[in-house]
Each structure stands twice: as structure tokens, then as C-alpha cells.
Amino acid sequence: MSAAKWRRAMNGRAAMTSSIRPAAAVPFPGIPAQPAERGARWFDALRAYVGPHHIVVLAALLLLPFIASPFFTFQVAAQALVLGLIALSLTFLAGYGGMISLAQMTVAGIAGYALAILGTSSSAEISLGWPWWAAVPFALLIATIAATLIGWLSVRTEGIYTIMITLAIGVAFYYLVLQNYSLFNGFQGLRELKPPTVFGVNWRDPLPFYFLALALSLAAYLLVRWIVRAPFGIALQGIRDNPRRMRALGFHVVAHRVAAYALAGAIAAVGGILLAWYNALMSPGSVGTSWLINILVIAVLGGIRHPIGAFLGALVFVLLQTFAIDLIDRERFNLVIGGVFLAVVLFSPDGLLGLWAMLRSRFGPRPGLISNQRRQP
Question: pTM (2 decimals)?
Fold first, then answer.
């Protein structure tokens, strides 16, 4: 046998040997191994989203209304969840899309006003009297379409121009509802916007409304966490970092940004429905310029690099709004908010979450020391 034939024979035998798998790795005929692998993938994905700290926080949120008073449950916790849900839409746009919009409270107000006009309110001559199961989906759809149009107008600009366009839209909507009496009832607004009684439960009572707001906030939080790890979210973050390169790679930058505005608008619309039920009214004061800025303050105060920052900032905002009047005059409440906001931004540009990460890295255990201690006998 020649040397060339011997090398070919050995190469063929090596290929045959490498292709042989152990018997345990080959599935039995008729019994596929896919469900076990699928379950392992689901378990790994669940571990990536849910950690021990999530379980602790969720348990605390579930036990809170049974420990705290009805006032704290409704006026503080439920309100923080509602405002955090609206601020979450801005966190998604700014943190993962690089687009700062001041019109998220406007989108929430559009959803609230649409619910009041389509459903029932104190102004019977304005409201159409639709049942809640028809009024709520149409109100969400109208607000999402409005957010898509706002995104279509503003995504072609960047930086200060995007902020000015969304601020102009918010101010225009404020004066529209303030001066229009035939459709929005002017400065008085539309009152008695009560949530429906379903399964014999009054959903505006402190305990049911809190759990309703908690369930919707948790669903929106998990949705954002899933979206940012999906291909759409990864592409959106790439567009945030370098839109020119993403456009050169074949991604439609404008379409991705408009879709992000639509998704953020849907989240803000859910918050707007809850806000209308919480206040039992929709008035121009609910969509005024002060609230346009407050949503931005809440998002930046908590930290826009993580979805949980919106709810953390909302909790601090509501606590200051509720209890600061015991220490300072009501008219000077914005001075307190501004001082807290300025202090947090000066010490941590990433808000309260960045401040916590900074303290944890400085005073917490170092991974290198822990690994060295574990290696010692």
C-alpha cells in the first residue's frame, strides 16, 4: 500500500470514529429528547430574568397591602405603580432607544380622555356610554396610534430637537383640552371615571386597585425586559449607539424607532387608563406642562438604564409629594423635588440605581477576594 492510500484510509477511519456517539447520547427510537432540552432552555431563560432579589421584592409587594394602612396602599403604593408605569415608557425610549420624549404623559392623557369620552362620566352629553370592555381597548388603540404618529414626527430629529417637538405636542394637547368644551369639557374636565365592578369587586377600592396596578406594572416590566433581549431590542440598542452603522448593515432605523414609540405608547396608555381610574377624572391639569416634566424627573431620578428605575423614582416622588407638605409649604413642593433631583444627579448621573451600584462596589465584598478565600484550604 502506498503512503498516499494509507493516509486516505486513516483519515477516513478517523472521520468514522469521530462521528460515532456514545450510546447514552443517542435518543431511543420513538422517544425524542426535545422536551427535556426545551425545559432546560426555559429554566435558563427564567433564571436570566428572575433572581432571588426579584422573589424577595415580589413577596414584599404582595404582603404590603396586608401590612400597611389603606391610605398608604392607595395613595402611595398604587399611585407610585401608576406613575412608574408611565415613566417606564420613557425609560424604554430613553434608556434603550436613546430618544427622550416629553409626550409620554400626553399619550397617557389621550388614553384617559378617550376612555372618558367613549365610556361613562359625569358629562352625559359628551360621553358615549360604551361598556368598559369596549371602551378600554379602543382607548388603548387610540393612544397607541397617537404615540405612533408622535414617533413618526420626532424620530427624524435627535437631541434637543426631539425634546422640543415632543414638548410642543404636549403643550398643544394641553391647550386643546383646556379650551375645548364640546369634547373635553374645558378646564373642569370629565369626572366620575370609575373602574367597572367585575366579579362583584369594586376595583377602585384600595386593595383591588393596588393589585390591579401591580399586575399590570409587573406585566409591563417583564415585557420590557423581554423586548430588550429580543432581536428587536438588540437592534434598537445598536441604533441608539450608532445609527449610521446599523443603517449600513441593512436595518431600517426610522421603522425601529417608530415601533419603539408605538410600544412605549401602549405602555403609557395602560398607565393613563389606571390614572383616570385612580383620580376618577381627567382634566387639563393631568396633562399640563408640570406633569410632562414630572415624568422625566421620575425616570431620571430612578435611573433610565434599567426598567425598575422608573418605579423606584415614582416611589420617591410620591413619598415626597405625600409627606413633604408636613415639613414645607405646599406651594414649595417643587423646590423639594428639585433639590432631591439635583442632589441625586450630582452624585450619581444614573439616578438612585447608579448610586446604589456605586455604594455596593465601594463597600460591598470584592469578587477577587471572595474567589481567593474560596481557593484557600
Answer: 0.82
